[in-house]
Write a structure and sequence with these properties.
The strands form four sheets. Strands 4-3-2-1-5-6 form a six-stranded mixed beta sheet. Strands 13, 14, 15, 16 and 17 form a five-stranded antiparallel beta sheet that branches. The chain folds into two domains: 10-27 and 223-450, Alpha-Beta Complex (Creatine Amidinohydrolase), CATH 3.90.230; 71-203, 3-Layer(aba) Sandwich (Creatine Amidinohydrolase, Chain A, domain 1). Helices cover 30% and strands 21% of the residues. By secondary structure, the chain is α+β, with helices and mostly antiparallel strands. The radius of gyration is 24 Å and the shape is elongated. Strand 10 (294-296) and strand 11 (299-300) form a beta hairpin. The protein contains ten helices and 18 strands.
Length: 453
C-alpha cells in the first residue's frame, strides 16, 4: 500500500502552535506506535509562517530572560556571508536565510522592565523582527555606526559570542573582533565580555509552541525508520545495508526534507565480529541497527532503532536479543531518572552509570541536547569513547530543553552461543524541569522483517 503524505493547513499548524497542551508528549515510558502513519508536511510558505511566528515569540521571551539572568544589558552578534555565527543563523526570518555581506544584530535592555531593543546594523531588513539602525548613506562605516549605537545606550556589559568552551558561543571571528574593538572607544571596549552563556541558552531552550509540534517531527522520523526496516524495503538475501541507507535518503528527499547526517544501517550477525555495513547483504537471523536524523521546521531528530530479520518459521526475535533490548531500556530509565535541574551533564552521567552497574547492566551513555542542531548546545552526558567526567559535560541542566537519549547496553545472547552483543538505542525527549518525556515514545520491541509471516 502506498504511503500518502498529507498536507497540514496553515490553520491546523497555527492551532498546534498556540495550543501546546493539546499535543503534549506522552508519558515517560510510553512505547512508540508500531508502523506509524506519516504526519502531514507543510508546504514551504506555511512552514515559513510557522517558523517566523516561533522566532518572534522566542525573541520576545527567551532573549530578555537570558540577558537579565546572565547580567548583560547588551548582546552583539556579528556574522559575515558564508561565515555564519551559529546563533545568528537561527535568528533570521525564513526569507532572509543567511547573513548578507556583514549582518550585525544588537540587543539592548534599557532596564526598568522595558522591552529589549532589537536592532539590525546591516544593509538589509530582517522580516520586521529587528529595527533597521544603519543608513550607509548617512554613515558609510558600519563599525562606526555600531560604536555610536552603543555610546548612545551606555551598556554596562556587552556580550560577544567568543568562547573556547563551546562552538555554539564562538561565532565571532578574530578579524571581526579586531575591527569591532578598533571602532570602540576605550570605555566601551572594556565592557566587551566573551561569553557563551547567551548563545547556549538561546539555542538549547525550546518554547511551548515548538514542543507542541516536535512530537510530529519525531513521528515523521519514526515512520521513515519503520518503513525502511520492513518487508517493503528489505528482502533477505538480496538487499544490502547500503540499499537501505540510500532508500532512506531518497525517501526524505521525496518528502521535500533533508537529513543532517548520512543514515547508517549496520548488521549484527551471529559469529561475526563487530558491525557489518556497506555492500553486505542482509540475511535471516541478522539484527539490524539504524542511526537516522531528519531536519524539519528548523528542528532535528536523532534516532537509533533495532530490527530483527526472522528466519523461516520464526514469529519473533530470539529471547536473548529481546533481553538485550530490555537492558538498554533499563539504561534509558536510569539515565532519564537522573535528570535534575541544576545538575551538570557529568553528574547525571555518574549517577546513571552507578545505578545501571549496580543493577548488573553494562552501560555506555553518550547523550546530547538536540534542537536547532542535531548535536545541540548544552551539556554533553558522556561520550562513546569517554565514560568519565569531561569539560564538555560541565554545563548545568536547564528546563525546557530537548535531548537525544543515546546509549547502549552490552549483553550476552544465549541463542548466539553466548556472544556479547551491543544494543544501541536512541530516542528524542524533552525535559520540563522535573521529568523527561519521550517526544514520540521509545522502542521496546524489534522491528520484524520477513520470516514468511
Amino acid at each position: 500500500m502506498k504511503t500518502v503524505i498529507g498536507i497540514w493547513s496553515a490553520a491546523t499548524a497555527l492551532a498546534l502552535a498556540i495550543t501546546p497542551a493539546a499535543a503534549a508528549p506522552p508519558a515517560l515510558n510510553t512505547d512508540e506506535i508500531a508502523s506509524p502513519a506519516y504526519p502531514g508536511i507543510l508546504p514551504l510558505r506555511e512552514r515559513a509562517k510557522l517558523q517566523d511566528a516561533w522566532l518572534a515569540k522566542r525573541l520576545e521571551t527567551v532573549v530578555p530572560k537570558l540577558m537579565r539572568e546572565q547580567g548583560f544589558d547588551a548582546w552583539l552578534i556579528v556574522a559575515r556571508e558564508y561565515v555564519e555565527d551559529p546563533v545568528l543563523a537561527t535568528m533570521l526570518d525564513a526569507e532572509s536565510m543567511h547573513a548578507r555581506r556583514r549582518t550585525i544584530l544588537l540587543f539592548f535592555d534599557p532596564g526598568g522592565g522595558k522591552p529589549v531593543e532589537r536592532l539590525t546594523v546591516s544593509r538589509y531588513g530582517l522580516g520586521g523582527l529587528f529595527a533597521p539602525a544603519w543608513d550607509p548613506k548617512a554613515e558609510p562605516d558600519q563599525w562606526r555606526r555600531v560604536a555610536a549605537l552603543l555610546a548612545e545606550r551606555k551598556p554596562k556589559r556587552i556580550a560577544i559570542n567568543s568562547s573556547a568552551a563551546s562552538q555554539f558561543g564562538d561565532g565571532l571571528t578574530l578579524s571581526q573582533y579586531e575591527e569591532l574593538a578598533a571602532a570602540l572607544p576605550p570605555e566601551l571596549r572594556g565592557k566587551l565580555v566573551r561569553s557563551d552563556a547567551l548563545a547556549t541558552g538561546w539555542l538549547e531552550t525550546r518554547i511551548p509552541e515548538e514542543l507542541a509540534v516536535y512530537p510530529d517531527i519525531v513521528r515523521l522520523a519514526h515512520a521513515i525508520i519503520s518503513e525502511a526496516l520492513s518487508d517493503k524495503v528489505i528482502v533477505a538475501g538480496k538487499t544490502s545495508a547500503d540499499d537501505v541507507v540510500w532508500w532512506m535518503r531518497e525517501r526524505v528527499s521525496a518528502l521535500g526534507l533533508t537529513v543532517w547526517f548520512q543514515p547508517s544501517i549496520g548488521i549484527l550477525r551471529q559469529g561475526a565480529s563487530g558491525m557489518l555495513e556497506g555492500d553486505e547483504v542482509i540475511r535471516p537471523g541478522d539484527m539490524l541497527w539504524t542511526d537516522f536524523g531528519v531536519t524539519y521546521l528548523g528542528l532535528n531528530t536523532d534516532t537509533q532503532h533495532l530490527a530483527y530479520v526472522l528466519k523461516p518459521g520464526e514469529k519473533d526475535a530470539p529471547a536473548g536479543l529481546k533481553r538485550g533490548m530490555a537492558a538498554a531500556n533499563r539504561v534509558q530509565d536510569v539515565l532519564t531518572g537522573a535528570f535534575e535541574t541544576g545538575r551538570s551533564g557529568n553528574q547525571i552521567l555518574a549517577a546513571a552509570r552507578a545505578k545501571a552497574l549496580a543493577a548488573g547492566v553494562k552501560p555506555s551513555i553518550y547523550s546530547h541536547p538536540i534542537g536547532y542542531h542535531g548535536h545541540g548546545a548544552g551539556s554533553s552526558i558522556g561520550f562513546w569513547d569517554n565514560q568519565q567526567a569531561d569539560p564538555r559535560g560541565e554545563h548545568r541542566l536547564r528546563p525546557s530543553t530537548a535531548w537525544s537519549i543515546e546509549l547502549n547496553a552490552k549483553a550476552p545472547v544465549p541463542e548466539w552461543g553466548g556472544q556479547e552483543v551491543e544494543f544501541r538505542l536512541e530516542e528524542d525527549a524533552w525535559f520540563d524541569g522535573e521529568r523527561v518525556r519521550y517526544l514520540d515514545g521509545r522502542q521496546s520491541r524489534f522491528h520484524l522483517i520477513g520470516g514468511g509471516r
